[in-house]
Amino acid sequence: MNPLLGVLFHWLGGLAAGSFYVPFRGVKRWSWETAWLVAGVFSWIIAPWVFALINTKDVVAVLRETPRETWFYTYLFGAMWGMGGLTFGLTMRYLGMSLGMAVALGYCTVFGTLIPPLFKGEFHAKLIEPVSGRWVLAGLVVCVIGIVINALAGKAKESEMDQEQKKTTVKEFNFRKGILVATFSGIMSACFAFGLAAGDRIGEISKEHGTDAIWSGLPVLIVVLLGGFTTNFIWCVILNIRNRTCYEYLAAKQRETAEPDGSDTRQIPLIFNYGFAALAGVVWYFQFFFYSMGETQMGDYKFSSWTLHMASIILFSSIWGLCLGEWKGASRSAKTRLFIGLGILVLSTIIIGYGNYIGGQSAH
C-alpha cells in the first residue's frame, strides 16, 4: 500500500480521461454515433483484453472461475454505467469539455464515492469513527465545493457570451439541455464504481492465479466494460439506422452532399477517422488502466479512489478547455472562479491522499 503512488496513478488516469475527447476533433464527416462506436470497440473491447492478457495471469481461466453472481452484477452495473457513458458524449456536445465534465462528474463523484460504503454498511466505521476516515470525507466535501465553483464559473461564462461566441467555441451549445443530460449522465456513470466493487472477487481470483496485486483489477475491467459496450452498441446502431449513417463505416464519400449527377461529394477520410477514433478509445481506456493500479494502493479507503479520479478528470479537462479556446470571451471574473475551483480540486486530492496515508500508518 502506497497512497502517494496511488494518487499519482489516479492523476495519470485523470489526464487520460480529461484528454480522450481531443482526438475526436480529428474525426471528419462522421456522425457522432459512428465515431463513438468505433472508439468504443477499442476502449471497451480491444484494449481491456490486450492489457489484461499482457499484465495478468490466466485471464481466461480467471473469468471462467468467476461466480455467476459476480459476473451478473459486475456486467449489470457496467451496462448501467454505459447509459451514462453514451449521454456523456452528448454532454460534451452541449456544454463543452470544461463545463460538461465539471457538472457530470460532480454528480458522479458524490454517488460513486459514497454509495459503495453505504451499501456495504461501512460508512460509519470507515468514514466517521477513524480520524483517517474523517480526512477522506473532508476531502470529498472539498472536492464537491471545487466542482460547484467550476460549474458556477461555467455558468458565468455562459451568461457573458453571446450566441455567436457560444456556437464558435461549442457548436451545439445549449445550457439547459446540457445540464439535464449531464445530470443523468453523472448519476448513471457512478455505476462504474459499483461495478468495480461488485467485481472484487474477480481481482481476488486473478491474484490467486499469480497476478501481481497492482494488475489484479484489469480482468474486472473486461467484464464492466463489456456491459458498457453492450448499452452503447445497441444505442449507436439504433442511431445509425434511424439517421441512415450505417454506410459511414466503409464509405469514402458522404451521401447527403452528393449532387443529383453524383458530383461534388465530400470525401470521408476513413483511415484518419479510424485512427483518431481508435486513439480516443485507447486514451479513454487508460483512465481505468491507471485507476485499477491506483486503487490497489489505497488500502481500506480504496472507494476514495473515485473522488481522486473525478477531481483529476475535471482538472485536466478544464485545462484542455482553456487550451482549445472554450473560455475565449469569458471575463476575468469567470476565469478567476475557474482557477479557484481547480485549485480547490487539487487541495481535495491532497487531503484524501493524506487521509489514506494516516489510515495506512494506523493499520501498521
From TrEMBL:
One of its GO terms (molecular function) is symporter activity. The keyword Cell inner membrane applies. The chain crosses the membrane at residues 6-22, 34-52, 72-90, 97-115, 135-154, 175-198, 218-241, 271-291, 303-325, 337-358. Pfam families: RhaT. It comes from the Bacteria. GO terms for cellular component: membrane. Keywords: Cell inner membrane, Cell membrane, Membrane, Sugar transport, Symport, Transmembrane, Transmembrane helix, Transport. This is L-rhamnose/proton symporter RhaT. It comes from Haloferula rosea. The gene is rhaT.
